[in-house]
Amino acid sequence: MKKLKFALLLVVVLVLFTALTAFAGDAYDASFTTSVTYQNVGSADAMVTFQFYPENASSPITYDATLPAGAGASLFMGGVADVPDGFMGSGILSSDQPVVATLVQIASDPAVQNRPLSNGFETGAPQVLLATVLKNKFNATSVFSVQNASSGPVDLDITFYNADNPAAAPINIEHNGLPAGASKYFDMGTIPQIAAGVFNGSAVVQGYAAGTTTPANIVATVLELGTNNTDASAFEGVSGASTTVYMPSAICNAFGGQNTAYAVQNTSQSASASVTVTYSNGATESANIPAGAKRSFLACNATGMTQGFSGSATITSTGAEIVVIGKVYGVGLYTAFLGATEGSETLALPYVRWTESQWTPGGRQRAYIAIQNVGANLPAGAVTVRYVDKNGDVVGTHSLPAIPSGGKVNSWAGLPEVTGNRAALNEFGYAGGQFGGSVIVEGPAGSQLVAVARVASAAPSNLVGEDYNGATIVD
Questions:
Q1: E-strand spans in 24-107?
Q2: The pLDDT value given to residue 23
Q3: What is the CATH number of domain 5-236?
Q4: Where are the domains of the chain?
Q5: How confident is the model at residue 123 (pLDDT cuts 50, 70, 90)?
Q6: What's the CATH number for 244-338?
Q7: pTM of the model as a whole
Q8: In the structure, what pLDDT confidence band is assigned to residue 83 with cuts at 50, 70 and 90?
Q9: How far apart are CA 97 and CA 39, in angstroms?
Q10: What is the secondary structure of 410-443 as a DSSP string?
């Protein structure tokens, strides 16, 4: 079986990587095989081409596929004959129809049951922000990859900021001459310049046309892997910051002990940020974050927070722009998702599953979707969630209740409020033994929606799961 890790997949460009090491009982030492879930959000059948590039190489391996309009499908990398075992590299995904994609990391070691998820990108940017990177901190170490999303070779300049000691001098590393389409992988556990045994911080990655100071487009994704446990999650680097960030999932000791934490990075190199987290129940927490630093906000620490809370949050900053990573932890969960800087009236979620009959350890998965309204109040019935099978057929529809501004509602295929083909919904995404199920969330013209999907699996003694963000669909 091929052992691969996809670091990220882009609608235009993708990155994948692998670590072939002996399993030592933790996620950091595990091997993964990637399944690329992708969804045709266009109006006609899509001709899709994947081009896979070995690390630092310019000659790709090509794989072609077709996908019906509206359908979602999966490409399991272990089954792509021309991709060799242990492949490490990057690639480009292209299509004659708009396509969105999410990567699913599947561990070959049964002890690591969580499946890290990360989304693709439509394009790159000269600067990418990684809100949290760790080395032996919180029992985790980060491995991140940076891909050249430009047409020529690029030089990378990476600066690390110490969150535990904001006064410490930033640490800088470089990598030069990265070919177009290629990627470079950085393991926080082995970077020589990160000399301390423990590091908790953030990173800023700059891309330049090789040998110049001309900005060049790049992208990046982070895997966060347990060093003495089987926790694993993934999130994307972001190119833009904001003074307002929306978090569709906010939890304080709900569902048997689930909680949220937000890692907030101040993107300014000179100004401090005055940050306030406001939860949908009115609870708040504020703090000042120095230039270039990050701070964590725990939902249960907010003033006015109630136990058992499950809602959403809005994070605002004055003085500097911020980026935010949301994390859910407790009762086995170890998830990560991006804070959203704006909403959209239509969202796509390419990786959605549900099972009624095989919800057992090692069995099938269940996806729970949190939808936050970041615009004006929306009445009941204004937002619709459509469940679409691998053939592009809508097998279920959920007409959502009223959503106040800043509030959220949930949807999943097993809800009785989801009407349609109940047999198909009860095993959504698993029809005929071929994986493929996706969702479209649609609001009225001018509405502003954001969403996070939590894809959960039953483990022997608890629940595991991982999050990914709904992708914006623009006509």
A1: 32-40, 46-54, 61-67, 72-76, 89-95, 99-107
A2: 52
A3: 2.60.290.11
A4: 5-236, 244-338, 346-472
A5: confident
A6: 2.60.290.11
A7: 0.91
A8: confident
A9: 10
A10: EE-TT-TTSEE-HHHHHTTT-GGG---EEEEEE-
